[in-house]
Amino acid sequence: MKELLRYIPPVHELQKDEQFEKLVKTLSIPEARVTKTIQTEIDLLRLQLIEGEEPVENPSKQAFFQYILDVTEQKLHIFQQERLFKVINATGTVLHTNLGRARLSDSAIKQMVDVASNYSNLEYNVETGKRGSRHDILEDLLIEITGAEAAMVVNNNAAAVYLVLRALAKDKEVIVSRGQLVEIGGSFRVSSIMEESDAKLVEVGTTNKTHLYDYQQAITETTGMILKVHTSNFKTIGFTESVDTKDLVAIKNKYPHVIFYEDLGSGSLFNFEQLGIGDEPLVKDVIQTGVDLVSFSGDKLLGGPQSGIIVGKKDYIQKLKKHQLARVLRVDKMSYAGLEKTLCSYIYGEEEAKTIPTVRDITKPLEMILKQANQFSRSLHQLTTEYKLDILEESSQIGGGTMPGVELPTYVVGVSHHQLSSQNLARKLRNNKPSIVTRVKDEKVLLDFRTISNEEIPELLEGFRFLGNV
């Protein structure tokens, strides 16, 4: 082992090598960064040797010398790669949480670029020439769309829940049905966020059944809030019962000291139910029942950038805006810009709303999906005969913890390669540029064109052509 350790070259010798100079010039990386990477690899090699590992075959001074330079070059190439990059979502899951959820509309993207590349009136009142508030930027649009008295935006719906509980129910009892103590992605639990907010959880009912009298019996002088959590990421089927929002509003109206807050989670501004898609409540319909506050996500069914939207009674919204956490949880100018144009699409009518990719893809006609699938199959067959292609009937999911149990009929192209297994092909597609994320079923790679745009098809074809000739 001591003999092998003596083979490790010093840093200054490696710095004199042509490969070192080439890395600095071709990758435009400062010498200090290349040197630091070399030192890290030397330390790692020394540790491996001490622990009895032999990462270099036929060890010698020259072999170690070249090994360190080669590994350094590899690590520097990886370091220069983009960490966040484009992915073609061929899974058919419209709001794929792992792939960034909602895609933004062209108008939203244009507005975000314009605001990001220039100064803006984020906190400046152009009319008065004085300081303004970012809370005012989108409030009129949200009031118009939802029918609420007031509105504000924070950085996601989890933040909205926390802010409402902390600002309005700290050290007070908050009544929640046991069947609504949900956990969503990333182990975010309603009960845990209530604990963090210093609100006191009061559970009522059972997992599958909660009655009106359960709430009535739980209300005391120390009750601060009734919280209804929309179970948007799961569905309980069978012997179940829950209390309607209107009935909870009626209870709340008997107790002036109690706030009724409904966390909708997804928050739909488009009537998908009229098209036979799910039964997600519209935000404006919930507001009309008389609830005090409603919160929902901006990057789920709404189809905008990540954000949490709170709408409701003006007095409560004003308290939220003035709370110290409002600054901690605020969103930036680009999110406001993207959300503004997304909201405008809803105001301009149903057809304009369908320009929002989330709404467009969820409501995408079957004949359009089939047309894309046929077009792709014909084009790929002309490029290469290395694949077997089948057009199959399947189903898509909406995803993002939204509309559980709702399956959208779709068409997929089932792809199999004459040499590669389906798992191996899927892996190669994921590591393609751009990355192509697919489903695998029955030894076929499935491409669901519900979530593939016409603009992405040429890149999709090129990816398959490149990988076909293995």
From TrEMBL:
Subcellular location: Cytoplasm
EC number: 2.9.1.1
Database matches in SUPFAM superfamilies: PLP-dependent transferases
Names of the cofactor(s): pyridoxal 5'-phosphate
GO molecular function: L-seryl-tRNA(Sec) selenium transferase activity
Enzyme class name: transferase
Designated name of the protein: L-seryl-tRNA(Sec) selenium transferase
Function of the molecule: Converts seryl-tRNA(Sec) to selenocysteinyl-tRNA(Sec) required for selenoprotein biosynthesis.
Residues found modified as N6-(pyridoxal phosphate)lysine: 300
Alphabetized Pfam families for the sequence: SelA (PF03841)
Sequence similarity: Belongs to the SelA family.
Alphabetic keyword roster: Cytoplasm, Protein biosynthesis, Pyridoxal phosphate, Selenium, Transferase
Transmembrane segments: none
Pathways involved: Aminoacyl-tRNA biosynthesis; selenocysteinyl-tRNA(Sec) biosynthesis; selenocysteinyl-tRNA(Sec) from L-seryl-tRNA(Sec) (bacterial route): step 1/1
Catalytic activity: L-seryl-tRNA(Sec) + selenophosphate + H(+) = L-selenocysteinyl-tRNA(Sec) + phosphate
UniProt xrefs under HAMAP family: SelA (MF_00423)
NCBIfam families the record matches: selA (TIGR00474)
